[in-house]
Amino acid sequence: MPVSASPNVxxxxxxxxxxxxxxxxxxxPGAGHLLLGRRGRAAIIFAAVLVAFxxxxxxxxxxxxxxxxxxxxxxxxxxxxFLGDLASGLFYIVAAGLxxxxxxxxxxxxxxxxxxIVAAGLLNILAMVDAYEIATRQKE
Length: 140
Prior knowledge:
Elements: H1 7-12, H2 18-27, H3 31-35, H4 39-58, H5 72-86, H6 90-97, H7 108-135
């Protein structure tokens, strides 16, 4: 008796290229979920990252820039903040490309603003991992 292909074989194949999903998810928050057909989740992710990033910018939070000034701890904080900012994808790229750089003024608003910008990037990293796991069928 010939052996036919099991319907479970198709269920284990990835929905889309996980690498494509990861890159698209980084570049445009929520876009990976959109490609996977999760429109509601995509809209929530996009809105959450956008609102957090916009709140940080409106609070005049500075964007972290990679640099090699200061001691080792200061450099680690700078690079960590830079990676958190960069994880916001196009929001960071557009803001940096347009020359966004608030004046260096002491105050709590700018400090909180920088935290909102980094939080937007960290939220997008969580969304990227979620989209990757859905694309590789590690979760539903």
